[in-house]
């Protein structure tokens, strides 16, 4: 059974108005698609970052990122923090350290965030009693399979039709932190023909709570072990800090690392890092975003 003491990552902290101001970026430009419709999930804003001198005559890799309202402009979100995605990728492109790329920032909708990001098929690895306690924390309706259908069958075709993108798997990537780290892992496992690489930052292996005898990490890691895609044409990046929520992750990340290595991943296509003293925040993720960006997008 899941014990009741837990830390809940409130979706309200991430929910912002669909009509929020356009992010101010220091490099490139933002194109917003407000209330992007879907037959699978609730409408949400999509912020697409285009690098400086974007040209329809060139082709661009695509990095899909969760929690899109937290990526570009600290003045436009709830906690006044950001990933500094435009500054970092803009500089790396100018320095010719990574391939030309665009970023698709997929907003979360607040109330459905955990339900959309938690790996749905991992729930089957929980006992009936543990499922009964977990499901209310996911609003009683897991939505991650629907979220990924939205991303793969609705959003990606739209992005590929509007922008000059490489549409193939080797140039399509997914990235997120915390629950978004879980979602990124789930995306590449469920759609290995779509995504060539995933960056899972401060992956929230423990689920929605802090608890003794927490069965959720076992369930998620069992799913990962059964669904790791081929190392021949995929890349995985994991990391975590050691402060605040990130202090929980080390034993589970070590198990994930063992799973990846057992499936044939090596330093060529797999990286797992620990950042001493770093906490669970956008500021911390911004300080190291260059590392997974280089890992996924290097030329």
| Overall 3D shape | globular
Helix fraction? 25-40%
Number of strands: 8
Percent of residues in beta strands:
15-25%
Q: Give the averaged pLDDT, no decimals.
A: 92
Helix and strand arrangement:
Elements: E1 29-36, E2 44-50, E3 61-65, H1 85-94, E4 101-106, H2 113-117, H3 128-134, H4 144-162, E5 172-177, H5 179-190, E6 197-201, H6 216-227, E7 235-241, H7 250-262, E8 270-275, H8 282-288, H9 290-297
Parallel strand pairs: 3-4, 3-5, 5-6, 6-7, 7-8
Antiparallel strand pairs: 1-2, 2-4
List descriptors.
299 residues, alpha/beta, Rossmann fold, eight-stranded mixed sheet, 8 strands, 31% helix, globular
Question: What would you note in describing this structure?
Answer:
- By secondary structure, the chain is α/β, with parallel strands linked by helices.
- The protein has one domain (11-297): Rossmann fold, CATH 3.40.50.
- The chain contains 9 helices and 8 strands.
- The protein has helices spanning 85-94, 113-117, 128-134, 144-162, 179-190, 216-227, 250-262, 282-288, 290-297, and strands at 29-36, 44-50, 61-65, 101-106, 172-177, 197-201, 235-241, 270-275.
- An 8-stranded mixed β-sheet has the order 1-2-4-3-5-6-7-8, sandwiched between helices.
- β3, α1 and β4 (101-106) form a beta-alpha-beta unit.
- α6 (216-227) packs parallel to α7.
- The N and C termini lie far apart (47 Å).
- Residues 1-16 have low confidence and may be disordered.
